[in-house]
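Format notes (please read before filing issues)

Several people have asked whether sequences and structure tokens are stored in separate files. They are not. Every record keeps both together, in the order shown below: the sequence lines, then the token lines. Line labels are part of the format and must not be stripped during preprocessing.
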Amino acid sequence: MFNIVERRYLYFTLSALVIIPGLIAMIVSTIQLGTPLKLSIDFTGGALQELRFEQPIPSGEVRQIFVNQGYGDTTVQTTGDGSTVLIRSKFLDEAAKAQLQSDLQNTIGPFEELRFEAVGPTIGSEVTRAAGIAVLAASVVILAFIWWAFRKVPNSFRYGICAIAAMVHDVLVASGLFALAGLVLKWEVDALFLTALLTVIGFSVQDTIVVFDRIRENIPKRRGEDYETIVNRSLLETLHRSLATQLNAIFVLIAILFFGGATIKQFVVVLLIGLLSGTYSSIFNAVPLLVAWQKGEIGNFLRRMLGRPTRATT
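Then the structure lines:
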């Protein structure tokens, strides 16, 4: 029987190699922007305009008009054939909006306004607070549910903690890579990012619970086997189900990424990264972490960090 769990420290190392650059990007972003991720108007307050010109135009010309009016933080993104632009800027009142659109028309040419959204900073703070509460509440509920559902299994609390650890892993991977994209590609976090992140959390925990549930079934059936063998057997028994479920969703997201609109591209990328990370963490992080904890390896690691004697593992 192929032993997946015995290579657990290799999996932990691979996760660290992905997460650490993202954390560094968050630190750099915090130093440069004051926040770990580049925030959109959903959080900071501002204005979003979508304008369609009669012919393709350079985004730099549009941005320069805003810069000349004192809106230096404006970002401009062209979509479609280059004739449609998405403009994100500081908050605009009606007078400022009219002046800027007049300058655009006089300098570049006539256009059609497809969308205009103005969001004040009060709404942005509410969105941020609600997102934090949602993630915290989800973590508490997941921990409590797993603890109760696995109450007949020894150390049931550990199953909940390992599921939360895998969830945090996926959040860090998605957020870290998005922080890198924010620094390199100027991607901004908006309400859709939070939606994608919460969806990723749901998929990740669901996949982890499937494996844990098989472990719970196999423990009384395989009393003659050691815990690591039971866990590895359970993982192999559910591997095809986990991969089939996640790959179906991943293939759909790849299709949307290539053939969908530009306005949902970032949303789809976060979902795709999160699902890939969730598939990995459920198989190669949550379950191996459970085994390491059961064998006392986590406690020994902490004791070594504190300079105390270690205990023999079983």
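For reference, the curators noted about this record: Residues 46-119 form a domain with the Alpha-Beta Plaits fold (CATH 3.30.70.3400). The mean pLDDT is 85.
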